[in-house]
Amino acid sequence: MTTTIPQQPTPASAGPKQALLEASGVIMRFGGLTAVRDVSLTVNGGEIVGLIGPNGAGKTTFFNCLTGLYVPTEGTVSYRGTVLPPKPHLVTQAGIARTFQNIRLFANMTVLENVLVGRHTRTREGLFSAIVRGPGFHRAERASRERAMELLEFTGLAAKADHLARNLPYGEQRKLEIARALASEPGLLLLDEPTAGMNPQETRATEELVFAIRDQGIAVLVIEHDMRFIFNLCDRVAVLVQGEKLVEGSSEVVQNDERVIAAYLGEPFEGTPQSAPEAAPADAPESAPAGAPDDDEAPENDEQQENDK
Amino acid sequence: MHTLPQQLANGLFIGSMYGLIAIGYTMVYGIVQLINFAHGEIYMTGAFGALAVYTNLPDGMSIWAALPLMLAGGAIVAVLIAVGAERLAYRPLRNAPRLAPLITAIGLSLALQQAVFLWYPHATAGKHFPQLPGDGFDIGSVSVAPGDIFLVVAAVVCMSALATFVRTSRTGRAMQATAQDPDTAQLMGIDTNRIIVIAFAIGGLFAAVAGLASGLKYGQIKYDMGFQAGLKAFTAAVLGGIGNIYGAMLGGVVLGIAESCASAYISNIPGMQQLGGEGWKNVWAFVLLIIVLLLRPQGLLGERVADRA
């Protein structure tokens, strides 16, 4: 019959320091190519963890291993102490939701419908009750719609609930992806480059949004190239280079690690957040870092600095 | 008999049947991009399933009481065969090159024909099918048989039920989501295998309704009846825009009306006396298809999608 499943026990009940996600020894090989080499990562309840690294370092591949899209060649991923099955829909059901590097909304469905699809695992509905459409069916539908509208309010999209997803501007499409992911009532949210292509204002709004999500008791694991964003946001940062985890630690530790600077940040790094000025090298020149692997990011960082002046 | 309203009505009746079968093609194509060429045979087995139930009913039972049982029998047979084909023949080939499942479908189509030919008692020739009681009647200048009424009512009921189901239920939304992006749908917690099974089952159900209606309309069913009906229904699905359920119904009706008008009027055009009548109606049906596809390659209601059609 039709019932709305009560929300999963919120991660708050899992305790802030309890391990929520544990990936241990994950190896992903595609034929002769090893995209992820023996990566272990833990995300605790209530934490925001960043995953950074040059393009092609295996970050998204690692995400795909976590969500069951890829079956890791070796290693295990467990969530709340249970090893996750390699089926994406069961991973979502267990409580892990994600967004995508390239926006993957259901373009021809409305904003509200996209969020309702996200609620799929949190509503039970037999085929029978969908055909008969008894009171239970309508109750579950109504509850689902209410929750979906709450999430649209939360992300600031409520006014556009009836628009087709493909007609939203880019920044709002990114927000909608987050709303849709939250609709599955996750304990852990994986964000794959949530601010890619955003202007500094939009990036800051996304930052606020991620903090608000964390404050609801949802742990966040985020991939991002925008270092200011990462170091502002994250309790811990892990650096992937060529499929291997190079360093993991607090923002300060990672920013000052010589290997990270050599492999990724570039010497010297100019996007240091204002909140940690002591970490900025005193002789930071205005030019883009020579060793930065991602040239696209450099002008954006310049722009941000200008805005800050 | 040859008045325009009569031709339009005839076209509507036969078109409703094409539309009911076309739903099966279009739903399966929309979700797994497979042209299920065995679908015409699923329609045929639906008709034989209904007949088998009728033959085993006690003598003297009224046809009105028998009708729901026949429908149930036909539906069970057709749905089981459709779902079984998906499970045993198509699912193992899900990630194979597209030609592999296509050829499998053609093989399955021949196998089903031969199975009915060999194993259904005395199915080597046409089988007599029970008729609805009562004579035809006239609405204005249009004469209508009881079987035609059944056909149109069945098509309208099925179609509106399906539209409501797809638009407003959780499973319906999951179907739309899976059709647009199966990988993302999985990550939203949707068991796409289950959705695919449901698509095949709905297609089988509608084909069974069409099979029963066809028996009632023509009074006879035959093991090879699925070939031409399937071809026409496939044409209707493409005409309406494959992947679109409304398009399938519209395509069916347009095709039916074009056929019936062509067979009645083409021979009145000077110089084309030889090209009218029953024998040529299939040719005109495909001429219509070619013209529509030249002007609107995505079909009447289809979305312009680069990697489809």
Automatic annotation (TrEMBL), chain A:
<dbReference type="InterPro" id="IPR003439">
    <property type="entry name" value="ABC_transporter-like_ATP-bd"/>
</dbReference>
<dbReference type="Pfam" id="PF00005">
    <property type="entry name" value="ABC_tran"/>
</dbReference>
<dbReference type="Pfam" id="PF12399">
    <property type="entry name" value="BCA_ABC_TP_C"/>
</dbReference>
<feature type="compositionally biased region" description="Low complexity">
    <location>
        <begin position="275"/>
        <end position="292"/>
    </location>
</feature>
<feature type="domain" description="ABC transporter">
    <location>
        <begin position="21"/>
        <end position="267"/>
    </location>
</feature>
<feature type="compositionally biased region" description="Acidic residues">
    <location>
        <begin position="293"/>
        <end position="309"/>
    </location>
</feature>
<dbReference type="InterPro" id="IPR032823">
    <property type="entry name" value="BCA_ABC_TP_C"/>
</dbReference>
<dbReference type="InterPro" id="IPR003593">
    <property type="entry name" value="AAA+_ATPase"/>
</dbReference>
<protein>
    <submittedName>
        <fullName>ABC transporter ATP-binding protein</fullName>
    </submittedName>
</protein>
<keyword id="KW-0547">Nucleotide-binding</keyword>
<dbReference type="InterPro" id="IPR027417">
    <property type="entry name" value="P-loop_NTPase"/>
</dbReference>
<dbReference type="GO" id="GO:0005524">
    <property type="term" value="F:ATP binding"/>
</dbReference>
<dbReference type="InterPro" id="IPR051120">
    <property type="entry name" value="ABC_AA/LPS_Transport"/>
</dbReference>
<keyword id="KW-0067">ATP-binding</keyword>
<keyword id="KW-0813">Transport</keyword>
<feature type="region of interest" description="Disordered">
    <location>
        <begin position="265"/>
        <end position="309"/>
    </location>
</feature>
Automatic annotation (TrEMBL), chain B:
<dbReference type="InterPro" id="IPR052157">
    <property type="entry name" value="BCAA_transport_permease"/>
</dbReference>
<feature type="transmembrane region" description="Helical">
    <location>
        <begin position="12"/>
        <end position="35"/>
    </location>
</feature>
<feature type="transmembrane region" description="Helical">
    <location>
        <begin position="233"/>
        <end position="258"/>
    </location>
</feature>
<keyword id="KW-0813">Transport</keyword>
<keyword id="KW-0472">Membrane</keyword>
<feature type="transmembrane region" description="Helical">
    <location>
        <begin position="195"/>
        <end position="213"/>
    </location>
</feature>
<dbReference type="Pfam" id="PF02653">
    <property type="entry name" value="BPD_transp_2"/>
</dbReference>
<keyword id="KW-0812">Transmembrane</keyword>
<dbReference type="InterPro" id="IPR001851">
    <property type="entry name" value="ABC_transp_permease"/>
</dbReference>
<feature type="transmembrane region" description="Helical">
    <location>
        <begin position="149"/>
        <end position="166"/>
    </location>
</feature>
<feature type="transmembrane region" description="Helical">
    <location>
        <begin position="63"/>
        <end position="85"/>
    </location>
</feature>
<feature type="transmembrane region" description="Helical">
    <location>
        <begin position="279"/>
        <end position="295"/>
    </location>
</feature>
<protein>
    <submittedName>
        <fullName>Branched-chain amino acid ABC transporter permease</fullName>
    </submittedName>
</protein>
<keyword id="KW-0029">Amino-acid transport</keyword>
<keyword id="KW-1133">Transmembrane helix</keyword>
<keyword id="KW-1003">Cell membrane</keyword>
<comment type="similarity">
    <text>Belongs to the binding-protein-dependent transport system permease family. LivHM subfamily.</text>
</comment>
<feature type="transmembrane region" description="Helical">
    <location>
        <begin position="97"/>
        <end position="120"/>
    </location>
</feature>
<keyword id="KW-0997">Cell inner membrane</keyword>
